[in-house]
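Thread title: Can someone regenerate the structure for this chain?

I was given the following input by a collaborator and told the matching structure tokens would be attached. They weren't. Posting the sequence so someone can regenerate them.
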Amino acid sequence: MILKLQYGLGFVEAEFRPPRQITELKTKRIATLQRPEEIINQALDQPIGCFPFPQLFKKAGHILLLVPDEVHDTGGAYYLPLLLRRLKALGVSMREVTILVASVWGARRNGVPHLIEAEKDREGFPRVVYHDPNEAKSLEYAGETKRGTPVLVNRLLVDAEYVIICGTSGYHSFAGYRGGPELIVSACSGRETLERNLLLACDLAPGRVHPRCYDGVLTGNPVQEDMREAFRLLSFNFLLHTVLNDRNQVVSAVAGEPLQAHAAGCHMVDDIYRVPVAQMADVTIVSCGGHPHDRNFFEAHRALHHACRVTNPGGTIIFTAECAKGLGSPHLLPANSAEVLRVSAPRELGHYPPEIVWALSTRQKARDYRIVAVTNLNEKTVNGLGFTPAASLRVALQIAQSALGASKLCYLIPQGSTTVPEVV
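Best answer:
Regenerated them for you:
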């Protein structure tokens, strides 16, 4: 058979003699005939765990809409104008509305003013503010979590009378889920808060990532639990999150009391993207699913993260990721060095590049599995990651030939970045 996998904007392919037992892992293909606006309106009309939207916001004072930096990729072109129209209908002046654009790295000028242009009233547009985690004067201290994370968040979250958290529900490789608490602690906080929280994923003494820090895990996940504790130190009125299919189309939405609505969105994400399997495989062949999932290694790591979850330790993983933009962070390889990872007490690190978590995860995977990488990264970089470089998919299959021949089970994951397999 011909094995053909997405790779960047194209494909890689090779002749493939599959082992006796090979299983392809795929997510559900979800589509809808409903328009995104209808889906979002239905969620707003039936909020979870709180009063109806008109009762909450009729003639409300200063309202803060929190949106992620990648607002276009979350259905923001639909929900932002829709929310503003609803608020105007309730007698809220656009002068009383501020849109805060959240981002881990510092928000870009991402086109929010263009999305809301049609919603201008006689008093003008809502104010748009871009969060910068390094701008100390824009931060407010809200307390400290039991795990010692100082909660420094954008001052606007504290000063606003009403806060609506907008975004999308999805998976996070270490925090379990995106959106809700993650949007506050990762994307609307100060650098120290982000770093301290994310470092909870690292168990540096044995040089491993905490076993509960994985997509879809809430209970026992120290990163997510710390986020939720920080979240409860603040007051938020409402959450509106979309749920997207693998083509980035809005197929559902949740709204209401922030933690309850976020939980409902997480359940929907599980239903679409979680793939239960009965046993671990000896060999896994995984593609990120092409661009944008494999534009750099930082993004592509997600697919490898998922493949390792269902591969026996000591097994072989064929990993295809173009990585046309390189590693994606200048800190990945330095953070991967033994000098940093040798630190035994996480709090001794002080300020550190957040990429250390991805670096530690990569180092752990390279130690536990034989990873054969088909990628545009140069050979020195691939070796530095601890992988075996392969010039093509054909060469990768040849390198893994003995493992494939001896394997009792092989998994094929064509859309590795969005497919979240789990042994049940």
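The CA atoms of residues 69 and 103 lie 5 Å apart.
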